[in-house]
Amino acid sequence: MLDRFTDKAKRVLFFARLEAGQCGSHEIDTEHLLLGLLHAAKGILAWAPGLTADEVKNRIDAHTLHLPSIATNVDLPLSQSAQDALKHAQEEADGLGHKYIGTEHLFLGILGVGDSFAAKLLREGGADEETMRQKLGARNPE
């Protein structure tokens, strides 16, 4: 699946791993993926117009249990929710007829994990999958 990821989408995973390690999490979760999106895709919150990057960071910080940092050379697995988000991202790309998986698909993938904190946060900020799919489907990406 990673071979279909754009460079930006790969950077999301890199930053998600950094975020998870900084808060001492032993796995990468959907909140870390969302924070990774904020690092790698600066304008991504246009899809959640009721949120700012600072608000997302503050709400995730307040929601997160902080433990001692984990060294960056330690491989962290994806949580089941994060695995589900990546699977949903692939399904979204396929459903839109896109050969690549980009940050927009990762955003939709996070929304697809409806019970995750990150998905709830994005919905509260006005993110809407159907509107997003319609706008993305209107594009003809290469």
Overview of the structural elements:
The radius of gyration is 14 Å and the shape is globular. It has helices at residues 7-22, 30-40, 53-63, 80-95, 103-111, 117-124, 129-138. The model has no long low-confidence stretch (mean pLDDT 93). It has seven helices and no strands. The protein is an all-alpha fold and 142 residues long. Helices cover 57% and strands 0% of the residues. Helix 1 crosses helix 2, helix 2 (30-40) runs antiparallel to helix 5 (103-111) and helix 4 (80-95) crosses helix 5 (103-111).
Number of helices: 7
Q: What's the count of strands? A: 0
Instruction: Determine Rg (CA atoms, Å).
Output: 14 Å
- The secondary-structure class comes to mainly alpha
Q: Which whole number gives the mean pLDDT?
A: 93
Order of helices and strands: HHHHHHH
Bin the strand percentage. under 5%
Shape: globular
End-to-end separation in angstroms reads 18 Å
In this structure, how is the largest beta sheet organized?
none
Low-pLDDT stretches: none
Structural descriptors:
mainly alpha; 142 residues; globular; 7 helices; single chain
Q: How would the blueprint of this fold be written?
A:
Elements: H1 7-22, H2 30-40, H3 53-63, H4 80-95, H5 103-111, H6 117-124, H7 129-138
Structure in a nutshell:
The protein has helices spanning 7-22, 30-40, 53-63, 80-95, 103-111, 117-124, 129-138. With 142 residues, the protein is mainly α.
